[in-house]
Amino acid sequence: MQDFANADLIVIEGSNMAEAHPVAFQWVIEARRRGSRVIHVDPRFTRTSANADRHIPIRTGTDIVLLGGVIRHVLENELYFTEYVQAYTNASTLVSEAYGDPEDLGGLFSGYDPETSTYDNSTWAYAGDPDAIARGLPERDETLQHPRTVFQILKRHYARYTPEMVQETCGIAPEDFEYLASSIAENSGREKTTMFAYALGWTQHQGGAQMIRTSGILQLLMGNMGRPGGGIMALRGHATIQGSTDIPTLYHILPGYLPMPKAGQDDFDEYTRLVGKKEQKGFWANADIYTINLLKAWWGKHATAENDWRYHYLPRLTGAHGTYQTVMRMLEGGVDGYFLFGQNPAVGSANGRMQRLGLTHLKWMVVRDFYMIESATFWKDGPEIESGELSPEQIGTEMFFLPAANHTEKAGSFTQTQRMVQWRDQAVEPPGDAKSDLEFMYELGRRVREKLKDSSDPRDRPILELTWDYPVNEHGEPDAEAVLAEINGRHISGERAGQPLASFGEMKDDGSTSGGCWIYSGVYAGGINRARKRTPGQEQDETAAEWGWAWPANRRILYNRASADPEGRPWSERKKWVWWDEESGTWTGKDVPDFPPTKRPDDPGDPGKGGVAALAGTDAFTMQSDGRGWLFAPTGMVDGPLPTHYESPESNIPNPLYPQQSNPTRVTFQDEDNLSSPGAMGAGGEVYPYVFTTYRITEHHTAGGMSRFLPYLSELQPEMYCEVSPELAEELGLEPYGWATIVSARNAIEAKVLVTERMTPLQVGGRTVHQIGLPFHWGRGESAVVQGDGANDLIGMNLDANTQIQNSKNNSCTILPGRRPRGAGRAELVEEYRRRAGLIPALHPQVDGAEGAPGAGPAAGGTPHEVRGPEEATAVPTGEPSMKEMRNR
Amino acid sequence: MSLLAGPEGPSAEAGWDHDHERKGFFTDTSICIGCKACEVACKEWNRNPIDGNLEILGSSYDNTGELGANTWRHVAFVEQGQERIEEARESGRKLVSLGMPGIGPKSSGPRGATPAGDLSDVDRTPPDTPEFRWLMSSDVCKHCTNAGCLDVCPTGAIFRSEYGSVVVQQDVCNGCGTCVSACPFGVIERRDDGTVSPFAVREEEDPRRNTASKCTLCYDRLVDGEQPACSATCPTQSITFGDHPDLTADAKQRVADLHERGMTEARLYGANPKDGVGGTGSVFLLLDEPEVYGLPPDPQVPTKSLPKLYARTGLAAAGMVAAVALSFLGARR
Fold it and tell me: What is the torsion angle, in degrees rounded to the nearest 10, for the CA atoms of residue A536, residue A541, residue A542 and residue A548?
């Protein structure tokens, strides 16, 4: 995180960093102290804005127009970093003749199938001989003039993203746009770098992944990737979310970003070739080695070359199995039992009502937490009990509450956004019966294996053959460092048998090594827990390589080959980071070079060999199959190779750029409790005229499990509130610090009113857009010190097709003075508004907001679309029970 | 000016024989992010009860309100429009003369692993006056050079520590409350409850109940060589702890830096040893007039005129004695 201090300009957009990441924000403060500029783009003026040089208010969900406008600005005025763009990006690459751009197709890319609401991305491919493309050598025009170069496509794609369009769409004044665009231009190039930081303000949109891509394109154009004070900081939702994707708690990936195999992928070689082909450039060419080492770590001596290293023991995906699909399965009666580890979906997940109703369909549920969170008590004190709709006698879910140890009561690691793994030691013993997750999982596995030990059922073999043998201390707590050592990997045979791997470069494909997560290999090199390094800052240089350990190979900045020019010289003395040393014939510098150490800058690469050998001396983006940073993404995104602006499904503003109103691949679930306002696509949209956006505040932690149960934090923000502008308060008669009721197409909640100039009405599309801010930390339950209505009860389960993340940031509502009705009156109020908006499913079969829109997909009652993982769908078998009427639309 | 503290500093005056520098806080509100970690760290360390009735106070993000018996750190939140910002800039410009040598922004303090870098092209043009700003400031006991609470305490429960701080001994305090009215900042207060949690058993008697209570500058941490909980926790080093002369010098340099960048609204509070309390151990950098943050603009220690008063009383008493004596003498005649 300390690389923030090296930036000359920090653009924080889609993040309220000072409030949500106050500790990391010290580096932003440090950057300002050194004279850097900080710009905060956000719908609300927050504590981050208060510490920025300028706050630019934006209409939520329009970030692609704003940054697309900056992309246009730097392209039209030739302000991009020419040498960087030519050497290190795919700007010169030619794209297939079959590619069609939204500019020509009314807002859709080529390859769209309205029946399934999905894209076939074959027309987005590079042009050229397929074998050459596979070797990372597509057709290129180094002059960037060919009309099918990525560069020219990019220019045409963003040609209409003008400052006027930015004003008209985002509500951003031309002066503010100019300030942002010229700040970025002036603080990029050889001498300076600009850094972006985002968080859930970008991810939680239907199309959020494309917002992040837009900043990626801009940072590549400006030459800010792989350089000190550059890059894009993905600020995470809470501690070690980075770690939980590296070594995932997600359904679609395995440790080290290897994809989870899909049903039908029964050939091991075929699977590894889908991850990375031997002939492609860069480090993914060794995907087979990473997979074999993972399988060896899991199944030890049972994993052999003859049985494909027990690849066939891995479960197979039949579709998306995210948290929302799981809730739908619960409601269908398709889930018997559920474990909750540090999660509070009754408060923290979208559509709180459906979350709670889903839990009532379980046979049993285990909650492991510090306190009796709302997800553990919904059956006796949740909103549906208060309203009289349900009573505890009707709910058959058998509840188990197991107290959990907190982070000071157990050893383990946190990985932060800059991929730095930091170890923490146990400070105190957990109180009472509280146990660490590690101990719980280990013990659970031990007992399951004990019960199965005499089983001859083949389906039990994967569990019985697992390596499950961690040393435990006198309290029964497994040694967390033993797990770290397993993740790091070790030599199994040969003269170094038993020794830890020094790096993933030592991994072999013959079963003589094992390693649980290839990118973490080296964290335990030499038998030393390098994540536990804590040399104080004063005692080392500014790279601070002796504090913690950053994957891969303790490298602090990824793709840092790009911090030197094509000849290997630093772009400037001021931004010196990694460079080629002719004398020693190696890459050297302030960081671990992210490049084959002795590959000369003028090395042409050996395409015949593939992998690392195929990289040319200027192929700085070593994980990409062509060695270049991707301005245009031929694969990897399900909703387009370039970011394109769509309105949120509930937006009352017609898309100013294209006839296509909303992202055509967005995912939703049809259910009476999951309706959406038709927005600009139907008359009923005006029933919900205001935009609401949810957020978190410093004083509380996500769904409140770690804050609303603590008196010292509860007293700092005791009540649920909403933030409105003085103009809106005046218009509706909302009393400062009085009560208001907020009604969406899903539910109604009440909140105290904070009338503040920090909220600004915006002029967009010839109308005034009022945005309402709602923190999401509160929920209804008797156990917490403070309780309140939950903002997530207002939000639908509407997902980004790339990530299956819900849209929490851009939804529509109305707001009324006074408290909400009690009892059944709450549902009646919601129903009344739905009726006015034409959202009664019995009367209006297509009430999900997509009426008339291209890509609306099959009407309700049609064939449900097959569910998909976050990557392009392949091999999803038919006839699988799919989630209740889940559709892309 | 009070004469209860002399030129050697308050702790020397109090009779401590040691070589500690006077300790204090420098709270730089220009880099406060309003996270309230100081409030929580303070309560955690000192096991202070929660305050209030768990309702929104109606003061922006401030639900604490003020310093008191249970709250020894308080973060104020002030929302301001353009007009007020211009006034603040103007009033600050008048307070602080420009022309101090500008050596550029300081690198980070005690934790600093990062060099200052090349500052030759740092932007020195004054910023446009923003249309809106949100001020945040963490308030605390001032640990005055001339402390009213200490002066008036009849039991000796309040003492001047070897670090120059003013500390209440709650096992000595009899709860008379004289100190409460003697504090010009409204910091010290009598505690009426002693429980930390709303779920705590109220019957349990807290020995600290009904005694005077305020920030101790974490006396119990200082004697172990630790710094106070609030400054240790502050993520942005808005609160720094250290030797008072160093902090004051840092504070003055920071004001000069900010003025050089056009932020003439910056000014110091408590750094003037000639003010009504003889200067404070807790020094603040503010971005507006003290009143805006709820601080008195011209605090006066109520015992300021005690020496003069005593002198006059003594004189009057001597006069009376003389008069009486004279009258007796006169009567003999």
Answer: -50
